[in-house]
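[09:14] KT: can someone run the structure on this one? pasting the chain below
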Amino acid sequence: MGTLLPFWGMIIVILAQVIGMVITKAAMSSGVNKYVLIVYSNALSSLVLLPCSFIFHRSVRLPFTSSNLYRLIFLLAFTGCVGQLCGYAGIQYSSPAVATAMLNLVPAFTFILAIVCRMEQLEWRRKSSQAKILGTVISITGAFVVTFYKGPIILSTQSPVVLQPHQLFFSPQLNWVLGGLLLAAEAFIISAWYIIQTLVLKKFPAVFTVSFYLSFFNAILSTIYSLILVRDSSAWKLRPDVGLVAILYSAMVGTTLRLSLCSWCLWKVGPLYVAMFKPLAIIFAAVMGIVFLGDVLSLGSVIGAIIIVTGFYAVLWGKAKEEIMMSEESGLESFKSSSEKVPLLQNRAEDVGSSV
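[09:31] RB: done, structure tokens below
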């Protein structure tokens, strides 16, 4: 029972993420503006997270005198807003399966940024560092394959439920490339977001409060650029259709439930176990995209996803190996310090015995 509940918890987290992508793709395919989706989703998420921050972090308040913390939170919100925009546009031009494949680039990009920001040291002679470098190169290579090689169609449905959006200015191949590049940019931005979030949570370790401020600032930022880009007032009207479902799902399930459940799984079994489930999203997204959206499964997506997942697990193996080595070194140091104290105690006992 120790890992059974976290196992099913992570299955629910991955399913919630993929279902959110599929619903978002369906909403945009039916004509819902992606900028409007982002605004309403962020606004509703902030309303949902506000009571959660009071419930779970009642005794913790954001210090009003810490200007650096507010700057970091605003930078975190701005980074998340840009990443969210790239993600929505990338899904619109490609498919949820490609989006989930590209998300496996996050550990590789995070590793690169951690080295640049001097949050992680690189030791070329260690196998753990070599595995992380090799995994990073493999993952980025897989991303290029997914983006620039679509290949022949392996599996498709004859009667899709929702039609693909008709693009006037780009061919389907260019749409696919643009979508892949946007999703790769989203993965890079998410990696930068993780780095900034680490700095924020070190200063203020209240997850729901920070998440509320992020959603709140995201709502403000997305409203500003959406009012500039969306001139049609009818696009802002909410209707009882798949667009409303996408907004409600993103706020209720995609943000609150998934964040809470994923945080609980991180607390129970650690980040390595949680990260192992990410490639499972590719399978779920491919099946749901084909069944519900009429997406096609191409050879390039399969080959690229396999390459990315291989690199993903190489980076994880290197990280796990590094953590084992660090724990062994710390255990050896504690053993040495304790063994140095033993002769002192023995000498003290001998002195006492001789005096008696």
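[09:33] KT: thanks! Confidence is low (pLDDT under 50) at residues 160-170, 348-356.
[09:34] RB: yep, looked fine to me
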